[in-house]
């Protein structure tokens, strides 16, 4: 699959979002609600019964407001029934792969930038260009033809829900109370080590592992900061050498052996609705910027000042901006219902009241008028997210292309080895050797 055009398109949309921001003021659930058609709907589509499915991943906060958005859609129209399915990140992709195999994917699915290439290659999501041309999918508020995020080789497979970046969210109140200096804008590894040590000794607050949910992102940012890339240009091998992988793993081994790390059993028992920082079990944690609002809501404590800074050691090209998520129409959506599916996506993207419900949880919106409305009315917490995206824009470099075919297996391999380090079962060198050898076999198996 050709990926260059996707990266170039994304670069333009990120520049537009930053300009708009700066220049103007795991449990599976299902639900059914009714939804709307837009003003572009044909007379038949506004009267005939239509049933659409929609799926997404996330925590309870996202589930709650997304269902409210669907209720808002229902209040404006009456003939569309929507079957909603929402699960945790861990369960989402196995569920979607199972549905893809049985041809039962929902009409609309939430996509991830790292995964979308695989769904394009196996034909499970469809080109939405016709939906833009017939105005069922309204992208008129995005500047220019290139600002789609999921447009590849002239075909539109996904629409970005917004822009986000990795961050380190920390409890500034806890640091201040302990007399510990907060991270700088260019958060360094030396600062990280000092804060970890002092917060443990002065406040008995340990440090969590480096992106334990998906350590591939830690490895990716680490090697990018050394001028390398996660994968080679053809996607058939890593874009860095084994020594750099061991170096990245060594950072986690050093933390695990420092006496400042949180117990692995506690770490791996947590989830989006059982957050460690919200529960004051740590002083900070790495996560995507669109996830911080959920943490703040779970904490439910206005006396705690949560702040965002960049991941340690990412100011030299490690950090990047990415589509938070994307919406796609699947091949299992009947042809007759694809106009309606496009209108549902269009409503989610363009309706200001719907976006007020979502805030920045799905990223900083790429729609100019919606962005202006949200920034103007943003509460203190959402404003922190908007401001952070502006900061990242000063340091971010071009995002890598979506993952190659071997990406999912490589991601699992890295996590397996990373977890072994966290639990003290392997050294960084052992984990790097095993990860490298196993990954070479994975790349070879997917070379065809």
UniProtKB/TrEMBL annotation:
Domain of life where this protein originates: Bacteria
Keyword match Signal: yes
Bias (Low complexity) ranges: 24-43
Protein name: Extracellular solute-binding protein
Entries under InterPro entries matching the protein: Bact_solute-bd_prot1 (IPR050490), SBP (IPR006059)
Keywords for the protein's UniProt record, in alphabetical order: Signal
Region of interest: Disordered: 24-46
Residues making up the signal peptide according to the UniProt record: 1-20
